[in-house]
Structures are given as structure tokens and as C-alpha cells.
Amino acid sequence: xxxxxxxxxxxxxxxxxxxxxxxxxxxxxxxxxxxxxxxxxxxxxxxxxxxxxxxxxxxxxxxxxxxxxxxxxxxxxxxxxxxxxxxxxxxxxxxxxxxxxxxxxxxxxxxxxxxxxxxxxxxxxxxxxxxxxxxxxxxxxxxxxxxxxxxxxxxxxxxxxxxxxxxxxxxxxxxxxxxxxxxxxxxxxxxxxxxxxxxxxxxxxxxxxxxxxxxxxxxxxxxxxxxxxxxxxxxxxxxxxxxxxxxxxxxxxxxxxxxxxxxxxxxxxxxxxxxxxxxxxxxxxxxxxxxxxxxxxxxxxxxxxxxxxxxxxxxxxxxxxxxxxxxxxxxxxxxxxxxxxxxxxxxxxxxxxxxxxxxxxxxxxxxxxxxxxxxxxxxxxxxxxxxxxxxxxxxxxxxxxxxxxxxxx
Length: 409
Description:
Elements: H1 2-6, H2 15-26, H3 32-54, H4 61-84, H5 93-119, H6 132-147, H7 162-171, H8 184-203, H9 209-226, H10 237-264, H11 267-287, H12 296-302, H13 312-315, H14 320-342, H15 355-367, H16 378-397
């Protein structure tokens, strides 16, 4: 984070210019770029708060929330102070505020999650860990995609504020089946399936679960797509219909076959099936639309210096996707780390830890080089690894231990 922010500052020792920039930082104007930067800061520093509480050595959650918040404030202040001496960067009090709030939100959310997971340790579960750790992050990642869809997240230029942009794009809202990603079907179907599994685990079987989940999902997805207008993206009702229908089918399928599947697959067999299915989902998320890139010059251009500097690629973008994508990547890989904490590939050796998932993460990211219109960025792999480690650590710190090996002994 610090490396990407402070790289290429082109520092200037001119104190007069620095004083002007400092005044501008203390009296900022809220523009479109500031709103995007604020959202991105919230996501990035929330990650700092998550990692801080997860790796705490004291176990004093309240203290670590305070320390994480103060650390976010201090780190952000140092970064913005350095940018005061840069003629090509803009320091802002808004950035300090959003950074601090992000750190606090990440720390607080992690603390509440740890308490919930610890309390559920003696309760029934499908996977040996609360389904909340699986269905919750995956559903939120799906909602992130509804808000900033892949290949459609670069908004058209606009001159009005968010309300004016929203009204204008709602007036132009339309159905366009040709522009709708067909891979929404399996990805959102899985979300519906997992959400019903979560509801059953917590409340037992009820005939109304799948319909209620579909209704809530329809509302959330519709709000996310309507919000496209405020962030200068086109509103396509066809995408809403496909995503909601996919969740409905997934929820109905879980209501119909979840009991049968859990009877057929038990113990390590269930864990193995879940790991394989989730790995396939991660590949679909990462490599869609599965169109190969055959131009050698494009493939070679992917391996540039910016691609190997964490967050550098996202820093060059000024859109909502650059902020939401970081959170989405973390949410997608968190469940895998949590599951491997109780069902490792092997019980001993390197495969008893997170190394298999880490290797898979880098293979998936390197695969972007050979996929049309996808971009290799080491940031994605690093965020995924952080999510794996966080999920694994949260589960272990809450007292869970491996039940056995998913493959072999």
C-alpha cells in the first residue's frame, strides 16, 4: 500500500508550493475523483484493519480495534504529508478521514466475525465451520460484481452530480441480452445455493427459505444496478433478470437437493467436493469469458513493471471498479482459506497448510496473460493470499482444528 502510494512522487523541496498544497488539502473540494478515491481508501484500509485484528498477539479485541484505527490514522497522515511535497499528487483531508474509517470498519467487522465464529463452534455445520464464513463472503462478492460488472465498469463521461447522472441513466435503462455476461448463471446460482445452506444451518429446513432469499437478493441486486446510474454506468435490466433468476434457481436447487447431497457426501468426501467445486468457481470468476489471447505483443506487454508493483495498476484508474475489485477479490478467497483450516489437502507436510491454495492463486492470476481483455496484476494474487491467510487464521484462532485430510492422509 505504501509502496504504491509513495512511488513516483517526484518530490519537491519548495516550501512555498508545499504550503499551497497543504492549504488545498485542509480545504478540499469534493469532486468525482475524490469520491472514487474515498471508496478505494475505505476498501484498502479496511483490509489493514482486518489483518491487524486477525494477527493480534494479545487477543484483546477492543484494544486492537483502537490500535488499528490509530495506526490507520497515523499511516494515512504520513502518506498525505509526503504528498504535500509532490507537484503531481494531491493530498487531502478526505483521504485521511476515509483511510481512518476504513481501518476502523475492517477491525470492527473482523472482531464481530471472530465472536460469531467462536460462538458457533459447538453448533451443527455442513463443512465443519459456520456456513457464514462461506456463504457470506461469496454473496457479497457477487453483489460487488452486480455493482461494478466486469468489462462494463468504465463509466461514460458526465458533468452532473450523482443524482443527475442517476436520473439520466435510469431514463436510458434498457434490456440488452447481447451485452449480458452468460457466466452470471453459474456464479450467481452458487450464491443462491450457499445462502440457502446458510439459512438451513442456522434455522433448520423451511419451505420459505429459497423464496425469501430470492426476494432479498432481487432487492439487493436491483439496488446495485440502479446505483450504476450514480457511478456513470449504463443500467441494463437484462443483467438484473439473469442474476436474480440464477440466484432463484440456485436457492431452489439447494432447497430440493441439499439434504440428499449431504447424505451422499460426508466427512472428507464432502470437503473434497466443496474444494473442487469452489476452485472451479474461482477459475470461472477469474478467466471469464475464456477467450484466448493469441497476439504475442499483447501477451508480452502484460509483464511490465506496473504489473509487479502492488496497487499500482489500480491507482492509475479513476473508477468505482478499482475500489470494489479489491474487496471482491478478498471476499472470494476468504472462504477457501477458512475451509482449508479444518480440511487441509493433507494432514502433514507442505500440503497441510495454505501452499496449495497459494500456488493455485498465482496460476489463476498468471492465466490472465493468456485470456483476451484480461490483465495480469500481482495485486490480485497478493490480495487473494491475504484473504486465504485471514480466513485460515480466523478459524484457527477461534479454536477449530483439522478434522482430517480432504485427500489422503
